[in-house]
Amino acid sequence: MPGFVSFKTFANADGERVSLIEFESEQTAAAWRNHPEHLRAQRRGREAFYDCFSIQVCEQVRRYGFRS
Predict the structure, then answer these.
(1) Do 33 and 57 meet the contact criterion of CB atoms below 8 Å apart?
(2) Domain-by-domain residue ranges, the chain?
(3) 11: which strand partners?
(4) For 46-64, how does the pLDDT look when each residue is reduced to its tens digit (9 = 90+)?
(5) Mind listing the pLDDT tens digit for each residue in 20-53?
(6) 54: left (phi over 0), alpha (psi -120 to 50) or beta
(7) Alpha carbon 41 to chain centroid, angstroms
(8) Whole-prediction pTM value?
(9) Residue whose C-alpha is closest to residue 20's, from 29, 52, 40
């Protein structure tokens, strides 16, 4: 998907899962959110896999790190 940067998932033993999906911009994230194939996948996920979910859209304020 144009604008896609990364995808990371973290899971807990109790089944709780957090996924971080990064896009270049709000516009590219919106294009993915509204893509017909993705809309079908969302519908299938609600029908077959998830009881509930929560989505938070965040803006990166700062990014830094350390490497030895």
Answers:
(1) no
(2) 1-68
(3) 17
(4) 999 988 889 999 988 999 9
(5) 999 999 999 999 999 999 999 999 999 999 888 8
(6) beta
(7) 13
(8) 0.75
(9) 29
